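Purpose: get a first structural picture of the assembly so the mutagenesis plan has something to point at.
Setup: two entries, given in the order below. No constraints added.
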Amino acid sequence: MSSYHNSARLSQARKVAIFGGTHGNEMSGVALVNLWTKNGAEIQRRGVETKPFVANPKAVEKCCRYVDTDLNRAFTPENLSAPGGDDLPYEVQRAQEINRMFGPKGSPEAYDVIFDLHNTTSNMGCTLILESSKDHFNLQMMNYIKKAMAPASCLVLLNEHPLLKYSTSRSVAKHPVGLEVGPQPQGVLRSNIFEAMRVILKHALDFIELFNEGMEFPPCTVEAFRVSERIDYPRDTNGNIIAMVHPNLQDCDWEPLNPGDPMFQTFDGKTIHYQGSGTVYPTFINEAAYYEKQQAFVTTRRETLVASAIRKA
Amino acid sequence: AESLLYPDRMEALELVRLPRLSRVAVCGGTHGNELSGVYLVRELLKEKEQRTEKRRAEEELEEPASPLMLLSNPRAIQQCRRYVDTDMNRCFTHAALSGPLSDTAPYEAVRSRELNTVLGPKGSQRAVDLVCDLHNTTSNMGLCFIAYSDSDWICLHIFQHLQRQIPDIPMRFIHFDVSRKESYSLDSVGKHGFAMEIGPQPHGVVRSNVYTVMRAGVQHMLDWVHFFNSGTVFKGGFVDVFTMVKNIDYPRDSLTHNITAAIHPLLQDRDFCLLHPEDPLFQTFSGETLRYKGTEPLYPFFINECAYYEKGIALSLARKRRVMIPAIRVQTEEERQAREQHFTSEEE
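Result (structure tokens, whole complex):
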């Protein structure tokens, strides 16, 4: 096997964590982490310490998304350094604790990889969420996973948008990887969704093991969907939603939405059309948790990302 | 002509005359995160208000008595949760509705008494004639009526009417064999009542296809009531009724009580597909198939309903049987008076 002169030399991934229950009602991750906490044989790989972890135990206990505030938005620099201890909202305290255990964020001691397991009510199938287009380790991992899952689909969503990007629980690690699998209602465990998530993780851990053992991964390209814009529901002057996702758009995550296509349907049956300037690829269509975040769906644009060759240092 | 329907019977079922349905209530948001009903009731209230304003502007008469529309659990709706303190749809037993209320009573206990005042009192002559309570489920159940009786001809005729008006939507009539005394849900407050349950829809989400079916269902129900009150004779027929027999819980870890298996992929979404002994029920997290050990084939429903995890229900099972329903029409004024006199003289 020839060596690539431009191979990026990266340190081995020794410390890996799998977060379930960052949102307490996204059941596949909760069930997987509970399973692996009891019996972790399936997630063991040579040379890696893989720790399953329930990120938001109080929310899991109550089977709700969060108790005081969304944990998956809580890892901001302000929150992580906020004084106040017990007076802080539960999730801010929890974020600080997670930062101590798996970080500190941005430091050399931080965990190498955190897989953050999520479910969505949207028909997104298997989706990997990438936070940086320059994370070659993650790009190579996602390329590996996609090829291993083929012909089953596993798409990559890139959220690098300066305004729409948010401070996730996984962002504490050097290489944060989001797993989003749907559709699954909140509070419900669907076995096909659970198994799909399990398979993605199996391939991800296989990749890490191969990388740690010295395998060289040649340069590759990764098809990704880059987050572009958040689209809210139409609302009246009091802020009440006045229309639903149109039946033609419902469940059509990742399919092209062209200017003029039906987008929303009012409660009395009228159609509202997409008025954008070009074709976009919507996703997170009708996600339950996003009604309060003013988001009916996000638009994305297709892009080919390039990953350099990588090899352990 | 009616006896041709039942060639083996000596006589056809007699036409049944029932009291007028003067007051009808449509309730949404009994569970605050079941959104089709929430948005539908809000929309119907808005449209009614717009019509009222238009009539005032054009100096027309007020609209004839229209159904009472209300949002049952406003606090749960505001928080987009099933309930705040306790499941409101279990608060309507006679026992729960009577007796003193403590200062620390759960929100839903207080609210259910308010609703009983507005729509009831349950069991009295002042109660509304018909309650239609709107619900959604994460289960793949299509449109279901859920009622305590399998011989309430009003509910069964409304169901039959909806089946004919919306033939492309799978519809089932579910019967919970619970006595009037023990009935616990909001729809039991009216003289007649049923829950209209539509799925699949995740909680906290409104799916346009589900909302549209619910809207059509409510509209056809109100149309039927109007026709009934106007004297239409509704011919008898058959309705397949699913009577609940038992529930099955998930297998659980004895220490943590966490579930150790999920609904089997071959059962998921197969509500109302007959379940035979030895058919797959659950798939454990280690891949083992757990099978139905009952001796009788039964019809599963509420398969993997989110809200039932905490109630210890993975699925419910029902027996199906065909119920013959008689022809019905509204009582005339004379018939009604004659009946009242009859009851009065009986009492004397």
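The mean pLDDT of chain A is 96.
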